[in-house]
Design goal:
This protein is of the alpha+beta class. It contains five helices and eight strands, in the order ββαααβββαβαββ.
Length: 194
């Protein structure tokens, strides 16, 4: 499978450890666990995500997702992580840093999802903290931005616990579950008290 071979140097793939979690780049070998977790969590995830394609969980769609992640990593514009429990290597969710901008901005956006079986256990707060810190120390960014639906109390709590501050409301900001929806905007700055 030559098209899945990486052109990114192995040491350019960050591996983060935090509070019993391991965060690493997605791999082709993760497909089965990813498809199973996303499939079991579909009803939980669908209200908060872009509308799923009919082939969302197919191996072909997963390979396309990996190619997208590889391109962003190679171009240093995005970093994708799968989140695993350290004690049993169980996949529990995913997290991305996207739209990495350099120059005078030095910022990126963070997005995340967690499988329904792992909601409310503190995993995502720990993962968001770890990746936010990586953005500041490893990538040397100044600002990490996040957006979530006003009704997503769980996501708002994750961001607040992870040190993000509410900055405002963006009207019809993202197309989520098939409709343009307002989003609450958050940000964390490198020099914020963490």
């Amino acid at each position: 499978m030559a098209f899945l071979r990486s052109t990114v140097e192995p040491d350019a793939r960050p591996v983060l450890r935090s509070d019993g979690l391991i965060l690493r780049c997605p791999a082709a070998s993760d497909y089965g666990r990813w498809a199973d977790l996303r499939g079991r969590s579909r009803a939980h995830l669908a209200p908060w995500e872009p509308q799923w394609a009919e082939d969302e969980l197919s191996r072909v769609a997963y390979k396309m997702r990996l190619r997208h992640y590889e391109r962003e990593l190679r171009e240093q514009t995005g970093y994708a992580f799968f989140i695993f429990r350290a004690d049993d290597s169980q996949l529990i969710g995913g997290l991305t840093l996207t739209n990495v901008r350099r120059g005078v901005t030095q910022s990126c956006a963070i997005g995340y999802w967690v499988g329904v079986s792992y909601v409310g256990q503190g995993y995502m707060t720990s993962a968001v903290k770890a990746v936010r810190n990586y953005a500041f120390t490893g990538l040397r960014l100044h600002r990490v931005e996040a957006a979530c639906l006003p009704g997503n109390g769980a996501s708002i709590r994750v961001l607040e616990k992870a040190g993000f501050q509410r900055e405002g409301l963006a009207r019809k900001y993202l197309k989520i579950n098939g409709a343009w929806q307002d989003h609450v905007l958050f940000a964390s700055l490198k020099d914020d008290d963490r």
